[in-house]
Amino acid sequence: MNDEGNLLQERIRNQMTCHKMGVSNKPVVRLGYAESHLSHNDKDSQDQTTTIKQSLQDVNAPGGESNSNSDRNRDNTQILTTPQLSSRIKHIKQEMAKNHLQFVRFEATDLHGVSRSKSIPAHFFQEKVTHGVFMPRGYLELMPNLKDNEVNHIRATCFNSDIVLMPELSTFRVLPWAERTARVICDTFTVTGEPLLTSPRYIAKRQLQQLQDSGFSLLSAFIYDFCIFGVPEVINSKTISFPASTLLNNHDQPFMQELVDGLYHTGANVESFSSSTRPGHMEICFLPEFGISSADNAFTLRTGVKEVARKYNYIASFFIETGFCNSGILSHSVWDMDGKRNMFCNSSGTEQLTVTGKKWLTGLLKHSAALSCLMAPAVSCRKRYSKESKDLKESVPTTWGYNDNSCAFNIKCHGEKGTRIENKLGSATANPYLVLAATIAAGLDGLQNSDGALVGPDEGTDLSQLKPSEIPLKLEDALVALEEDQCLREALGETFIRYFVAMKKYELENEETDAERNKFLEYFI
């Protein structure tokens, strides 16, 4: 390798050193990339040198049983020393030998929240941890035939270039549903060492860091609906599928037992699962965790449920046979930095939101139109917003209430978890990292720019000094709302917003309903 090549490799290694996973048994969660070098426009063309701080998580042996104690996710950003990194890699290599692993998947999320991975032989693992795994950028950004005039802020040379997958070693797990295979979740970088600004996981980490900088942490969990189908047939371009029998009592328990047990061994703790309203329709609830872990758990489910279902001759999909998308709820609460005090809970014991909680909710209501674009990002996803209304409308009101599952934002004060808000705008096909990031961005804006004055749900759904957004029923209108929402543009990044909007416009121009349904059944299975 020539001097220029050596210099480039050295730069990447220097910038990514902090990205390797560190010492276990330290109660930490927060992740974050330093914001000091990121402008609001954060264009790819800028030559930024970004310090990357690795979030440490208290986990047991890689591939072994995860620590269910959510304290493993407390905030404490640290940078690993070389001995700590070496010790961690040694521990992983011992686990690989113990389980006779042949392959390791380096996984990253694409814009839809679907896993894109490269598998490498296990004996190359240490080398790939050091240098990363290269992947074409188009694998993650998913738009063929880019038009320069639509996305001129992302140069065609960038789109067609390679990116680097750098593993977060805290996520290394042996996959129970894949033979002699482990996985590690990766963050994505350009070959010159900058974070990929369209990466949903990077955007979520950045928002978590913003929340920490404001003196708070986030405890959250996803609640997903999904469907189990028999083998589909395609007739006249339409996918004809048959739902599996309703999973009740002991019928077909092996499938759900293997799924839940497998998720546990990958570090994703399931609190409950149940059959839902129709044959083959399931709901699964995760235990709440601090930091990025809730989105990582959801990301793991989206791949794991597909692979386990295939073993039982099923197809798992987040798309319902009636043409709707299943729900993907983010249940969350804001805590202090130490994770000891729920900032939504009243000390008086009354089942009402605190001032902090009201301000947070104010932000969610204010930005609900733009939020819906990221949380229901396809035409079919948005049908659920109007499924109970027979009137032809362009939008529906944004609703909130206490213990009211029909509301877009449902405040729950009962149970051992304490007060939390369920963001029910999301569909199960939305990218969980984007759901997490956008929810934090909207809530933070409420904390920083609101007086928190709410009219009670029994008195109406309006704010006293702010007209709440309505949720557009058409994706085209939601895209406009996202483009016009200055807060989310700045929080999520100009590059990401412009690219996301361009991608969705491309999909709208090239997609028919039947083709979209086939895509969801095939792509999201």
Short description:
The protein has 525 residues and is an alpha+beta fold. The protein contains 15 helices and 21 strands.
How is the topology of this model organized?
Blueprint: H1 3-16, E1 32-33, E2 52-53, H2 82-98, E3 103-109, E4 115-121, H3 125-131, E5 133-136, H4 138-141, H5 156-159, E6 162-167, E7 173-174, E8 181-190, H6 200-213, E9 216-229, E10 233-235, E11 238-240, H7 253-265, E12 270-275, E13 281-286, E14 289-290, H8 293-311, E15 315-317, E16 328-336, H9 355-366, H10 368-375, E17 395-397, E18 400-402, E19 409-412, E20 420-423, H11 432-449, E21 470-472, H12 475-484, H13 486-492, H14 494-509, H15 513-523
Parallel strand pairs: 3-8, 18-19
Antiparallel strand pairs: 1-2, 3-4, 5-6, 6-8, 7-8, 9-13, 9-14, 9-15, 9-16, 10-11, 12-13, 16-20, 17-21, 19-20
Helix pairs in contact: 6-11, 7-8, 9-11, 10-11, 10-12, 11-13, 12-14, 13-14
Region (Disordered): 57-79
Function: May act as a component of the cytoskeleton or as a chaperone for the reorganization of intermediate filament proteins during terminal differentiation in the lens. Does not seem to have enzymatic activity.
Pfam family, one: Gln-synt_C
